[in-house]
Automatic annotation (TrEMBL):
One of its GO terms (molecular function) is ATP binding. It comes from the Bacteria. GO terms for biological process: negative regulation of cell division. This is Carbon monoxide dehydrogenase. Residues 5-228 form the CobQ/CobB/MinD/ParA nucleotide binding domain. Gene3D superfamilies: P-loop containing nucleotide triphosphate hydrolases. It comes from Desulfolithobacter dissulfuricans. GO terms for cellular component: cytoplasmic side of plasma membrane; cytosol. InterPro entries: CobQ/CobB/MinD/ParA_Nub-bd_dom, CooC, P-loop_NTPase, ParA/MinD_ATPase.
C-alpha cells in the first residue's frame, strides 16, 4: 500500500527543507521507491535536490485546454505527459506542480490529473507532497487519504498559531488524515521557555503530536549557498541526526 506524507505550514517555515531531509531519510532506510511532489507554486524542492525541471504539471494543464494529438484520449495524453514530466533519480522520482491555475476553467484537466495520479501512485511505496500554504493540491491530485501530515512551523507565535489552525481545518476539507505532527524548524538552542509554552499549548488544543524541534543550522545554510544537494549532507551532520530522530519517532508510530 502506498503511503502519503504531506507537508503543511505557512510560507517560509522550512517545509521544503523538511521534505528534502525526509527524502534523504527514506533513501538511507531503503524505504523506496518514493514519489516527491513539489506542490508549492514557488517550487524549489528541485534546487535542494540539485535537479533541473524541464516540465511542470501547470504547463501540462494549459496544454490540456488545447487540441489533443489525433488517436489519443485526454486521459491518455495527460498520463503520457505526466510520465514525461517525471524527473527520475535513484530511489525516487520528482514531479513539480508549477504555477497555480490562471484564468479559465481547469476542472477537466484537474480531473484527468487526479485519475492519472491514482494510477501513478501504485508504483511507489511513499508519496511525499511538499505543499504550499493551502492544501488544495491534495484534492486536485486525488490524495484525500493522508497517512501522515507534518505541520511545519518556525519558532514564532504566529507560526505556532498557524500550525494549530491547519490541524483544526483538515476535517472541514474532508481530508482523511491518520496522524498529524508538529515540527518546529530553525528554533533557538536552547528553546526559550515562552516558545515551549506556545508549542505545548498548540499541541494540547489541536489534534496533533509534537514530533520534535530542529534548531537553526549553519550546515543547511552553507549547503544551500553552495547549491549542493541536501542528499549529500554528511550522515553525522548534527541537523541530519536531529531530523532523522524526528522521522524515527514518526515512522515508529505509523
Amino acid at each position: 500500500m502506498t503511503k502519503v506524507i504531506a507537508m503543511a505550514g505557512k510560507g517560509g517555515t522550512g517545509k521544503t527543507t523538511t521534505s528534502a531531509l525526509l527524502i534523504k531519510y527514506l533513501l538511507q532506510c531503503k524505504m523506496t521507491p518514493i514519489l516527491a511532489v513539489d506542490a508549492d507554486a514557488n517550487a524549489n524542492l528541485n534546487e535542494l535536490l540539485e535537479l533541473d525541471v524541464h516540465m511542470t504539471l501547470g504547463e501540462i494543464r494549459k496544454e490540456m485546454k488545447g487540441d489533443i494529438p489525433h488517436g489519443m484520449s485526454r486521459d491518455q495524453y495527460m498520463e503520457m505527459k505526466i510520465h514525461q514530466a517525471l524527473i527520475e533519480e535513484s530511489g525516487f522520482d520528482l514531479l513539480v506542480m508549477g504555477q497555480p491555475d490562471g484564468p479559465g476553467c481547469y476542472c477537466a484537466a484537474n480531473q484527468y490529473l487526479a485519475m492519472t495520479m491514482d494510477k501513478l501512485a501504485e508504483n511507489y511505496r511513499y508519496i511525499i507532497v511538499d505543499n504550499e500554504a493551502g492544501m488544495e493540491h491534495l484534492s486536485r491530485m486525488n490524495l484525500h487519504a493522508i497517512d501522515t501530515l507534518i505541520i511545519v512551523s518556525d519558532p514564532s507565535a504566529r507560526g505556532i498559531l498557524t500550525a494549530r489552525r491547519i490541524a483544526d481545518i483538515t476535517g472541514p476539507l474532508q481530508l482523511e488524515i491518520k496522524r498529524q505532527y508538529l515540527v518546529v524548524n530553525r528554533a533557538p538552542d536552547p528553546v526559550p521557555p515562552a516558545l515551549e509554552e506556545k508549542i505545548d499549548q498548540a499541541v494540547a488544543e489541536a489534534d496533533m503530536e509534537l514530533a520534535g524541534i530542529i534548531p537553526a543550522s549553519d550546515e543547511l545554510v552553507q549547503q544551500e549557498l553552495s547549491g549542493s544537494s541536501y542528499l549529500s549532507l554528511p550522515d553525522d551532520a548534527r541537523v541530519v541526526q536531529q531530523a532523522f530522530a524526528i522521522f524515527d519517532k514518526i515512522f515508529a508510530q505509523s
